[in-house]
Structures are given as structure tokens and as C-alpha cells.
Design the sequence.
């Protein structure tokens, strides 16, 4: 064994020193496309929110002079209900660690930071893939707010062919610039964003610029770039901002001919056109309840003592749901083969 100066070994010498630990935890999970920061919020003090959506509008007719005008009554509405759901997580705060683990990190602070981030990530996922049919405790995400949700059961939903839902056809049919423009047209009066995966954005950009589909002399004909108020680059398609979502498709993409997260690599994804706004204006909106949904979003409760344990606890709770005023506030292209070349 090598002798290190005065000491028998390097291990012996290292007993006299210690490494320096930096306070805090370095971020490793970076995710873009958060919808929470974009959605307008309405707060209610009841278990659910009811609102009426247009169904049948009145029509007029033409009559001759002095012809009797009949009384008609044919107007009706579709009533929608959005029920608040409880999102919660609580963790134990061990008494010994609370009192002693303070150098250099504060034990409670670290727990609270990770707790908040974990809860937010859960909500972000459910804003897209929440499904009351498969779990009655959660709220419906945008995939379940489409015009037709005709079946029940985990992952069993299907959608009729409507202007709001377009099946690109998986690997058999490439997506096209024309389909993306038609997607934008389905959201009235206009979408706030196009939500897509990072791969889909790169495929769109490469097809447009490297393959020469977008002509240099046609302003606004396809993908463009701008600068936001912070100097960062913003991408647009036909003047609609493109937002990259790391929550869309999860780790493996979506299954073909559905809007369900795949359990293994699928290569399929979807593009969403979303219009944010208050419910009464027909937009996509976040509904919160009681004393949650404010600046801190959560109601935080600290439990001083847990029975039979030298420990306390910390709990985060939010009462939340997603509401869509008009059925025209969302539209989707699904079953897109991400690495396939787009066509004009």
C-alpha cells in the first residue's frame, strides 16, 4: 500500500478533511409547455360549476303583407358541469431531522420545494390526459373535452370524425402543412397556441426550411420566428405561437389512433390547437375552489405532531378542474408519425 506523506494511506489522510456540500438541490428535470401559467383562472365556492352552451339557435322567416306570423319556440342549450377535484400530497417531517439537519440544507425547505414541484407535474399531466372515466377522482383533461367521448373504460375512448378531431393516419399518411392550417381553422375565433412535442416542432421546422416548402417571399405562410418581451425566440405557424410540451405523449409518445400515452416507444404524437379564455367567452379555463388557486395555488397545512411518531407533517391541497366553454376552443391532429416527412 502506497504511503502518502506522513500517513499510511490516502484514506487515512482524507479522514482529516471533508467535502463541502452546496446548499440546495440542482435541478435535473427540465420540462417545457406548462399550461398552468397560461390558463385563466376562475374561482368558485361550490362543489361544481354549471354553464350553458349554445345548441339550437332561432331562425327567422319571410312573410307576405298581413300574413299571420306564428309563434315559435325551438331554442335550447346544452348544460355542462365541471366538478372540482382534490389534488393533494402530504409528507412526514421527522422531528429529529427537523431539529438537526440544518447544515447546510434546511430539511423542511427541501421537502416543501420537491413537494410543490411534484404536485405541479401531476396537474400538468392531467391537464392533457386526465380521464374521469378511468379515475373518478381526477378531472378531465383536454383529451376528454373533445366533442365526442362516446365510450367509457381505461383508454377506451374514441372520437367520431369531426372537424375538431382529425386522424392523420399513423405511419400510412404523412402530416401536412394543409392539415395544420385546417387544425388552426377549427378553433374559433382563433387559437392561442399550437401545442406539440419537441420532435414534431423540429420536423415541422426542417420540412419548411430545409425542404423549401415555405417560400421566402410569402410572409406568414408557415413557421416564422419572433422575439418575446424577454428577448427569447418565439416560434409561430401562420401567426399562431408554437409551444413545446414535454408533457405531451410522456416518455413514449401516444398510441396509434388514440390520444392515450403509450407504454413503449410508439413514434406517434398529436398537435393541439388551444384557445385560452374565460368560460363565458368560450375559452379553455382553469377552475379552482375555496382558498386554493391564488398566488401560492395550494393550501398548505402543517401538522405539528403525528400520533405515535416523533414527527410532524406537511400537506399541499388544491381544488381544481379544467373547463372548456365552447367545443370550438380545442382541436387536435392525432396519430402523427413524428419522424415522417411533412408535405405541403
Sequence:
Amino acid at each position: 500500500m502506497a504511503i502518502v506523506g506522513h500517513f499510511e494511506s490516502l484514506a487515512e489522510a482524507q479522514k482529516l478533511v471533508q467535502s463541502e456540500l452546496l446548499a440546495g438541490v440542482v435541478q435535473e428535470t427540465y420540462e417545457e409547455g406548462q399550461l398552468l401559467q397560461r390558463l385563466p383562472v376562475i374561482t368558485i365556492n361550490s362543489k361544481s360549476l354549471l354553464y350553458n352552451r349554445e345548441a339550437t339557435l332561432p331562425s327567422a322567416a319571410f312573410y307576405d303583407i298581413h300574413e299571420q306570423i306564428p309563434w315559435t319556440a325551438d331554442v335550447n342549450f346544452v348544460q355542462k358541469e365541471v366538478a372540482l377535484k382534490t389534488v393533494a400530497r402530504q409528507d412526514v417531517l421527522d422531528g429529529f431531522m427537523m431539529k438537526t439537519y440544518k447544515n447546510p440544507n434546511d430539511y423542511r425547505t427541501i421537502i416543501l420545494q420537491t413537494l410543490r414541484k411534484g404536485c405541479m407535474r401531476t396537474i400538468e399531466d392531467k391537464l392533457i390526459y386526465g380521464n374521469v372515466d378511468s379515475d373518478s377522482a381526477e378531472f378531465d383533461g383536454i383529451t376528454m373535452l373533445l366533442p365526442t367521448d362516446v365510450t367509457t373504460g381505461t383508454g377506451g375512448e374514441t372520437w367520431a370524425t369531426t372537424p375538431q378531431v382529425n386522424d392523420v393516419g399513423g405511419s400510412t399518411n404523412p402530416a401536412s402543412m394543409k392539415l395544420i392550417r385546417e387544425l388552426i381553422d377549427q378553433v374559433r375565433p382563433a387559437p392561442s397556441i399550437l401545442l406539440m412535442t419537441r420532435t414534431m416542432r423540429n420536423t415541422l421546422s426542417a420540412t419548411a426550411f430545409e425542404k423549401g416548402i415555405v417560400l421566402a417571399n410569402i410572409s406568414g405562410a408557415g413557421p416564422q420566428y419572433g422575439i418575446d418581451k424577454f428577448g427569447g425566440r418565439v416560434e409561430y405557424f401562420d401567426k399562431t405561437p408554437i409551444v413545446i410540451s414535454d408533457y405531451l405523449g410522456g416518455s413514449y409518445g401516444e398510441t396509434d389512433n388514440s390520444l392515450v400515452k403509450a407504454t413503449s416507444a410508439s413514434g406517434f404524437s398529436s398537435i393541439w390547437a388551444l384557445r385560452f379564455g374565460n368560460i363565458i367567452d368560450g375559452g379553455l379555463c382553469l377552475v379552482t375552489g375555496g382558498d386554493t388557486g391564488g398566488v401560492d395555488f395550494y393550501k398548505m397545512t402543517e401538522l405539528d405532531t403525528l400520533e405515535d411518531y416523533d414527527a410532524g407533517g406537511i400537506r399541499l391541497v388544491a381544488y381544481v378542474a379544467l373547463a372548456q366553454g365552447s367545443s370550438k376552443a380545442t382541436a387536435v391532429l392525432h396519430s402523427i408519425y413524428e419522424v415522417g416527412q411533412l408535405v405541403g
About this structure: Helices lie at 10-13, 95-100, 107-129, 177-186, 198-210. The longest helix spans residues 107-129. The chain has one domain: 41-48+78-337. The longest strand covers residues 311-324.
